[in-house]
Amino acid sequence: MSENFTSPDFYNIDELLSEEHKLIRESTRQWVSKSVSPIIEEYAQKAEFPSHLIKELGEIGAFGPYIPDKYGGAGLDQISYGIMMQEIERGDSGIRSTSSVQSSLVMYPIWKFGSDEQKEKYLPKLATGEIMGCFGLTEPDHGSNPSGMISNFKSDGDDVILNGAKMWISNSPFADIAIVWAKDKNKRIHGLIVERGMDGFTTPETHNKWSLRASSTGELIFNNVRVPKKNILPGKSGLGAPLMCLDSARYGISWGAIGVAMDCYNTALKYSLERVQFGKPIAAKQLQQKKLAEMLTEITKAQLLSWKLGKLKNEDKATSAQISLAKRNNVDMAMNIARDARQVLGGMGITGDFSIMRHMMNLESVITYEGTHDIHLLILGNEITGHNAF
Ligand code: TGC
Ligand code: FAD
Fold this sequence. Notes:
Blueprint: H1 19-45, H2 53-59, H3 78-91, H4 93-113, H5 116-128, E1 133-136, E2 152-156, E3 159-170, E4 177-183, E5 189-195, E6 201-202, E7 217-228, H6 240-274, E8 276-277, E9 280-281, H7 286-314, H8 320-344, H9 356-366, H10 373-385
Parallel strand pairs: 1-4
Antiparallel strand pairs: 2-3, 3-7, 4-5, 6-7, 8-9
Helix pairs in contact: 1-3, 3-4, 3-6, 4-5, 4-6, 6-7, 6-8, 6-9, 7-8, 8-9, 8-10
This protein binds 3-thiaglutaryl-CoA and flavin-adenine dinucleotide.
Flavin-adenine dinucleotide (FAD) binds at residues 101, 134-138, 143-144, 168-170, 212, 217, 365, 368-370, 372, 374-375, 390.
């Protein structure tokens, strides 16, 4: 199915894209069809991250697409970044996670808040995938409310001593560096670059997930870890710093969810045209047409939403609340489409012969991480009313 993938474009949204956008979409799409789609189900079934894809993700420019080329990024615009996330997530949300964590949660904070020395040391290697990073904000007792975090550090000469724990961290089991958010003695949040191999730093893997099985998730544990002060990101402190990173990643997810929805829609459409019951293809039945028509409607609305958000991001005008609206809407949209598409396939829909069930399970993580569905609603509620209901 993926080899001949064409995305639904009911409103001719392609007219809104540049030739460069379309080229990026085509090359990313081809890579996904060649390198991800044929192997991803097997890796998901055995709950293993396909680590051989890291080098290829670097080669197609999926690490830091919008980071300037002087730091090894591709220097592309925000719509290009979104299109790449759409295409990669069409393959699998876990592979998009790897790309968006590296880009928006590791390279972005180093680029925006890092010293020149940090940028030169880490960004070019992160862009190729020679080194991989992860992002530690969530703690066992502080998920939706990261400002309550207890991870902390104390000054000791040229170093700080870091203590605490993070959980649910994508890519932590194999990451070479972690961007860790922790409080100083004044309870102010800072970002620190913690390197694998530092004494007292461990990254145990989280097992038994039913979702994002082809992505590696784990903890970050800091037991008196001595981190050089030169590894603190100097450019910004406070909760606003990690939230700026999240804005960038949440924007990418709004596009990624469209990729999942397109894949589910295309699979359901093709199956419904081929599957005959009661003497006719099920596509000829009104109940199945209703599902397909509503899928196409929701995909079209989401495409326009993310494209306009990308324009606003290109102009540096996108607000956090606008990003919350798009992440929340598009992931929910993709979940509903995955559920309906699964039903169109009947019993076949639950097998690994098709991508739908894997997508559906992955979306249970996507709707939870980077701010839950509820939290994004509360962000919008706050924006509309001026009343914080967290
Ligand atoms: P609040 O008092 O509202 O704000 C604290 C400070 O931050 C500022 N701020 C922002 N700055 C930049 N961008 C944003 N989006 C911002 N939102 C708020 C704000 O102005 C304030 O600044 P200042 O100077 O006054 O201190 O904060 P709060 O404690 O009430 O919490 C707000 C809330 C709930 C919206 C926020 O904490 C939140 O978004 N919670 C959800 C947590 C979350 O999204 N975690 C994600 C963890 S990372 C992850 O899931 C990666 S998954 C990776 C993958 O595999 O793809
Ligand atoms: P909680 O915050 O405990 O929420 C539980 C429920 O309560 C949710 O339904 C929530 O919406 C609701 N709730 C919370 N507060 C309110 C409120 N004020 N009003 C109403 N309802 C509320 N984190 C990282 O830092 N880095 C990563 O790389 C990362 N990767 C992840 C990968 C996976 C596979 C998963 C599942 C999570 C990942 N996370 C990561 C963590 C993720 O961001 C958190 O799971 C998420 O922010 C929610 O936190 P929580 O799980 O502690 O849920």
